[in-house]
Amino acid sequence: MSDRTDDESHLRLLAIFYWVLGGLKAIFACLPLVWIAFGMFMFLGSNTFTPSGPNAPPPELITLFGVIVLTIGVFSFLFSLSLALAMLYAARCLYYHRKWTYCLVVAAIGCISIPFGTVLGVFTIIVLNRPSVKELFALELPPGP
């Protein structure tokens, strides 16, 4: 096999792994929705479901805690979903040999997803830095479907 076919098969394999990891990240991005629901419950229902008694926390504290939990849930959801979408688009770019810099940046950012994202990101960085792969990205290919 020549270097070009090896590089193309490596890029195709990386694209498949990015599709799988991006899909899994999109599924697991739904987990912060539990935090969002819990925060909304505490924020909106703080006056209705406030515990009574001498040691009960004030409703303002429950509302504040609900806002904090809601904020953490929203930011976690948005970050996870945006990383999943970035990985899915990087898979497309790797498959069609487009946007070398974008793929490199997503690989670097994906390294924070321990352990699979780290392994995939490191291998992607290694493959993308080959001169023959850079030439593949520089070729003018027709856009994919």
Key descriptive features of the protein:
145 residues, single chain, mainly alpha, 74% helix, 0% strand, 6 helices
Give a description of the structure.
The protein has 145 residues and is an all-alpha fold. The protein has one domain (3-50, 58-138). Helix content is 74%, strand content 0%. It has helices at 3-28, 32-44, 59-95, 100-110, 116-128, 131-138. α1 (3-28) packs antiparallel against α3 (59-95) and α1 (3-28) packs antiparallel against α5 (116-128). The longest helix has 37 residues, at 59-95. The model has no long low-confidence stretch (mean pLDDT 87).
Set down the secondary structure blueprint.
Elements: H1 3-28, H2 32-44, H3 59-95, H4 100-110, H5 116-128, H6 131-138
Helix pairs in contact: 1-3, 1-5, 2-3, 3-4, 4-5
Task: State the gist of this model.
This protein is 74% helix and 0% strand. With 145 residues, the protein is mostly helical.
Distance between the termini: 28 Å
Assign the structural class, choosing from mainly alpha, mainly beta, alpha/beta, alpha+beta, or little secondary structure. mainly alpha
Q: Per the principal axes of the C-alpha atoms, what is the gross shape?
A: rod-shaped
Oligomer: single chain
Percent strand: under 5%
Residue stretches low in confidence (pLDDT < 50, at least 5 long) are: none
User: What is the tally of helical segments?
Assistant: 6
Largest sheet, if any?
none
Percentage of residues in helical conformation: over 70%
- Radius of gyration from the alpha-carbon trace, in angstroms: 22 Å
Count of distinct structural domains: 1
Question: What do the pLDDT scores average to?
Answer: 87
